[in-house]
Design brief:
By secondary structure, the chain is mainly alpha-helical. The chain has one domain: Rhopdopsin 7-helix transmembrane proteins. Helices cover about 75% and strands about 5% of the residues. It has helices spanning about 25-50, 60-85, 95-125, 130-135, 140-165, 180-185, 195-225, 230-260, 270-290, 295-309; strands at about 10-15, 90-95, 175. Strands 2-1-3 form a 3-stranded mixed sheet. Helix 7 (about 195-225) runs antiparallel to helix 8. The longest helix is centred in the last third of the chain and has 35 residues, at about 195-225. Keywords: Cell membrane, G-protein coupled receptor, Membrane, Olfaction, Receptor, Sensory transduction, Transducer, Transmembrane, Transmembrane helix. It holds the Pfam family 7tm_4. It is a multi-pass membrane protein. It is found in: Cell membrane.
């Protein structure tokens, strides 16, 4: 279609998960419960770490930042999804779409950097325990945290900037439950090749770089653990790192496949299921993965409950 002769679209329809009305209310209730647990778990963990001076060390500052970012990502995606379950009109304006995409890209990128920093932190703690206070100082931890958030901000600005070159004039139906960059490419009437290339270069580079840091850090951790003769030390190290490895594996799998290979052929339903995993399920699981396996966090929670109950 010639853009000059067509009407440029400024509103889109988010189809969501189901086209059957009888499933709208049950799905709304399920995702509402998930969202409430996610927010309480992540913001509660962040508040717990902020209020307990004993947890003001790099490991827990990173954990608190990760919990905050998980709450951010969930709050970016889930409220709009919940509203669409009940709304007759599932419209979203172009400005709302850009804002949601910007917020999600910021959170997802920041989480990639945080997971890499947490892997490096565990490497220093296990492989160089005597030098840990010297290497992983409060100043370095603060600098790494700020760099993660700034990196997420810059990355999201880049993609939003390139999106302004696209126009939408053919279809306004977006087969997704939130405004994501790949569905926007599919309905654009401007050639999105440059945008796809930018996603591949920037998102791919960030994910490959952070995954390499995680893999190298935990490979060195594994070698250090295997050299230990203390069974108790091996168990403690595996317990500390196991939660992080589980979270990284669950997060990077669908994210890497979706944004590093944006041209891969798969159904819209499969795209939504992949997106659901890292926008809704992972933020729900992370506080449970980290908190339930961490003695200091559980002890701090018990103390806080005793003071307030």
């Amino acid at each position: 279609m010639d853009i000059k002769n067509g009407t440029l679209l400024t509103k889109f329809v988010l189809t969501g998960f189901t086209y059957q009305p009888q499933w709208q209310i049950p799905l709304f209730l399920v995702f509402l419960v998930i969202y409430l647990i996610t927010i309480v778990g992540n913001l509660g963990l962040t508040a717990l770490i902020c209020n307990d001076p004993h947890l003001h060390i790099p490991m827990y500052l990173l954990l608190g930042s990760l919990a905050f970012v998980d709450a951010w990502i969930s709050s970016t995606v889930t409220p709009k999804m919940l509203a669409n379950f009940l709304a007759k009109s599932k419209m979203i304006s172009l400005s709302e779409c850009m804002a949601q995409l910007f917020s999600f890209a910021f959170g997802a990128t920041t989480e990639c950097f945080l997971l890499a920093i947490m892997a490096y932190d565990r490497y220093v703690a296990i492989c160089k325990p005597l030098l840990y206070p010297v290497i992983m100082t409060y100043r370095l931890c603060t600098w790494l945290l700020v760099s993660s958030f700034v990196g997420g901000l810059i990355h999201s600005i880049i993609h939003i900037g390139f999106l302004f070159r696209l126009t939408f004039c053919n279809s306004n139906i977006m087969y997704h439950f939130y405004c994501d960059i790949i569905p926007l490419f599919k309905i654009s009437c401007t050639d999105p090749s440059i945008n796809v290339l930018m996603v591949f270069i920037f998102s791919g580079s960030i994910q490959v770089f952070t995954i390499l840091i995680v893999l190298v850090s935990y490979t060195l951790v594994l070698f250090t653990i295997l050299r230990k003769k203390s069974l108790q030390g091996i168990r403690k190290a595996f317990s500390t790192c196991g939660a992080h490895l589980l979270s990284v594996s669950l997060y990077y799998g669908p994210l890497l496949f979706r944004y590093v290979c944006p041209g891969s052929a798969q159904s819209d339903d499969q795209d939504m299921m992949d997106s659901l995993f890292y926008t809704v399920i992972i933020p729900l699981l992370n506080p449970m993965i980290y908190s339930l396996r961490n003695k200091k966090v559980k002890d701090s929670l018990r103390k806080m409950l005793k003071r307030n109950v």
